[in-house]
Amino acid sequence: MKSKAMTRDVESIDGIITATYDVIGSTSPTDFNGHVGTLNSATLNANFTNRTVDANVFDILLTWLVNHDREFLQGGATGATKPGLKVFPYFATPNRELQTVAESVELAAPPDAVWSLIGQFGGDWHPMAASVSVIGTGVGQLRKIEMLDGKEIVERLDAIDNAKRFFRYTSIAGSSASRFTGTLEVTPKGSGSVADWRVQFLGPAGVRGMMSSLLKTGLDSLKSRFGGEKQ
């Protein structure tokens, strides 16, 4: 993490130097789930006689590390403890609720035609994906998806059944959620088909909307290729 800081106050008493800094730009502390927070100020106390250093920014960093898969803390030095508490470090309540997002689309094309496109784990059909590359073959293969916004996502194929037009995968890097798994399936309906995309994950409420948009955008794009539901 790179930052720019301005020294607000420096004091030296009996060999102990205390400096207080304010962050003035270019600082975006980010956790492993992509949540961006802020660090407004920090203090640093150096005792050259006893050769000790005390910095509250270390406390903030430790609290962030133990909570990075739970909820992200924002603010200045007071961010190391939850408001109203004096306990350090502040351990956030784990998010144990597994969330599910599911989207589907009815298409005019037969199931095999639709599966020939979206059933390829390395297929480049989603409009929000700039490119897709695959490492390996069959179950266990990895795909790296570079999104149009520059974000990179890595996913692993866990199971596939071409006869049933179904596969299951796990996100292993780049996702805004943890314990992320997804399934994609195409089933027949009349002379057409239904494409069903479902994901499960742990994550804050905001991630749910992002996932829903991702799934819906991808499935809706299939209408222009295969036609919508036949009336």
Describe what this molecule looks like in 3D:
This protein has two domains: 4-80, no CATH class; 99-226, START domain (Alpha-D-Glucose-1,6-Bisphosphate, Chain A, domain 4). 18% of the residues lie in helices and 41% in strands. The strands form two sheets. Strands 5-11-10-9-8-7-6 form a seven-stranded antiparallel beta sheet. A four-stranded antiparallel beta sheet has the order 1-2-3-4. The protein contains four helices and eleven strands. The chain has 231 residues and is an alpha+beta fold. It has helices at residues 56-67, 111-118, 205-220, 222-226, and strands spanning 4-13, 16-25, 41-47, 52-55, 99-107, 129-135, 142-147, 152-161, 166-173, 178-189, 192-202.
Strand-helix topology:
Layout: E1 4-13, E2 16-25, E3 41-47, E4 52-55, H1 56-67, E5 99-107, H2 111-118, E6 129-135, E7 142-147, E8 152-161, E9 166-173, E10 178-189, E11 192-202, H3 205-220, H4 222-226
Antiparallel strand pairs: 1-2, 2-3, 3-4, 5-11, 6-7, 7-8, 8-9, 9-10, 10-11
Radius of gyration: 24 Å
Q: Structural class of the secondary elements?
A: alpha+beta
What general form does the structure show? elongated
Spatial order of strands in the largest sheet: 5-11-10-9-8-7-6
| Contiguous uncertain segments of 5+ residues | 1-7, 68-83
> pLDDT average, as an integer?
75
- The SSE string, one letter per element, is EEEEHEHEEEEEEHH
In angstroms, what separates the terminal alpha carbons? 56 Å
Instruction: Indicate how many domains the architecture comprises.
Output: 2
Q: Percent of residues in helical segments? A: 10-25%
Taking the sheet with the most strands, its summary is: 7 strands, antiparallel
CATH architecture of the largest domain: 2-Layer Sandwich
Number of strands: 11
Fill in the CATH topology of the largest domain: Alpha-D-Glucose-1,6-Bisphosphate, Chain A, domain 4
